[in-house]
Amino acid sequence: MPVPVPQQRSVPAAETSHGGLTLLVIEDDPAGTTITVPELSAAAGTRVRIRTARNLTEAARLLTDDVDCILLDLALPLTGGGTGPGTPTADAGTSGTGTGTADSGSLPEPVSERAGELAALTHVLGIAPQHAVLALTAQDDTELAAEAVRVGAQDYLFRGELDARVLSRAIRYAVERKRADTAQHQLTESRLRAQENARLERGLLPTPLLDGSGLSFAARYRPGRSRALLGGDFYDVVRTPDGTVHAMIGDVCGHGPDEAALGVELRIAWRALTLAGLCGDELLSTLQQVLEHERQSEEIFATLCTVDIAPDGRRAGLCLAGHPAPLLARHGLPARLLPYQDGGPALGLLPRARWPRRQVELGGAWSLMMYTDGLIEGRVGTGGSERLGQDGMVAMVNSRLEQGLAGEELLEAAVAEVRELNGGELTDDVAVLLLGRDPERIRRWGGSAPRSHPASSVAGRPLGVQRPPL
Q1: For 186-228, what is each residue's pLDDT tens digit?
Q2: Which candidate, 369, 431, 434, 401, places its Cα nearest to that of 217?
């Protein structure tokens, strides 16, 4: 029997964002009695709106975003509007997580022996996955009520025990539990997505190929995007079969995920072209074609610096495409910038640009630092009115060299000091790598360097490759 009650009345109280609670009652009522709840508004402490539906088709019309909770009679038949194209049948799979949504990527739930008695609930959960649902049983059938909660209802009520106090409390509980279930589901999805993205981005960081070169390698990488592992900066180092070591560092304008993806594409293309034998202007011209085909807008460009170090390690070829010149420190001498007057434009700016290759003498023992502009554009001075710039970076590195720092320690100290001078985290991506040659070290290692590994980056605390210092 349905529960006849007097009409609801408004009670001034703390209400929800839309001015009270809205309850959708779905119950078959052949006698035509209006389903209401005795003194529900007074018991709930807020104004309660009640909508009634006699079948599932009518319920679908009354189901709107302002409905807070659904009270469903489990004895409601599917006939009379519930059976039709797209209507879930009694054996339709539902999620057992309590959210009322089906997970297409999971195994189907086993069909209950009482699935036929829950057909109406299954249908309601399908059309109202974001709403709290209370299951109403016509008798004290604890087994069916518990099965309804397992299928996806937030709670159950027995008709014989129904009164205003019990129902108002059940509505509040169901709404809050649904919100908690939804928040937990979203949090779990967010964590899984973050873990997947971290694995993906970590796998896209470069693995330097330097075996047999005799050179040392260190790197630091810090993306400007919050909680990201990759930014628009990119770098790579490989050794070709002829013994030449090729190093590259670049910067795609912008800081978003599209720029990070383009940076990865350019890095992979550079490695493939380098291993295929391209170098200098020919390589950069081909990379520009890749950039033009892959970029999202014609306004996107990328700066690049490439260095090819001869097998004997004493000289190198340098190409600059709108990128800051590397820093060279020879044994016993202060660091200085390599010549940059003959550099070409950034990739993607001029259709038929050229990038001349300049020969550079490195000497017997040296360290070569390549970096992106995020390292030199940090603020310094009172109030952060000035930028560090290349001259400031050179002075900073020389002071660290005078302290005896080298390799990993040098990069760690340099990046930390830039952050300190900036007064906090840098907003731009930062990538910096350090290649070095030490004849004494080469002799200690028997003519070759230990195997290189990729530099890693953790948001807020980037890590580098641990290797013996220069």
Answers
A1: 888 888 777 766 666 666 778 889 998 899 999 998 886 655 6
A2: 434
What tokens does 237 get?
A: 């180092």
| Burial state string for 33-45 with b = 16 or more CB within 10 A and e = fewer than 16 | eebbbbbbbbbbe
Q: Is the pLDDT of residue 257 over 70?
A: yes
CB atoms within 10 A of CB 258: 16
Residue 181: the pLDDT is 86
Q: Which residues of 193-228 are buried (b: 16+ CB within 10 A; e: fewer)?
A: eeeeeeeebeebbbebbbeebbbbbbbbbbbbbeeb
Widest CA span in the chain: 101
Which residue's entry shows tokens 């873990």? 195
Instruction: Kindly state the percentage of the chain with pLDDT values over 90.
Output: 37
Residue 266 token pair: 């350019």
Q: What share of the chain is helix, strand, coil (3-state, %, to 5)?
A: 35, 20, 45
The residue assigned the tokens 């760690």 is 412
Q: What is the pLDDT of residue 43?
A: 60
Closest C-alpha among 122, 17, 43 to residue 76: 122
Contact (CB, 8 A) for 323 and 304: yes
Among 363, 358, 349, which residue's Cα sits nearest to residue 306? 358
Helix (H) or strand (E) holding 291: helix 280-294
Phi-psi region of 214 (alpha: psi -120 to 50; beta: other; left: phi over 0): left
Q: Is the dihedral of CA 43, 49, 52, 53 positive or negative?
A: negative
Predicted local distance difference test score (pLDDT) of residue 381: 64
Cα distance between the two ends of the chain: 87
- Please report, to the nearest 10 degrees, the dihedral formed by the alpha carbons of residues 452, 456, 189, 91 taken in order: 0
In whole angstroms, give the CA distance from residue 410 to residue 122: 63
Round the CA-based radius of gyration of the chain to a whole number and report it.
Answer: 34
pTM: 0.59
Q: How far is CA 389 from CA 35, 160, 379, in A?
A: 75, 79, 9
Q: What is the pLDDT of residues 283-342, one digit of tens each?
A: 999 999 999 999 999 999 999 999 999 999 999 999 999 999 999 999 878 999 998 888
Instruction: Tell me how far apart the alpha carbons of residues 402 and 332 are, in angstroms, rounded to a whole number.
Output: 10
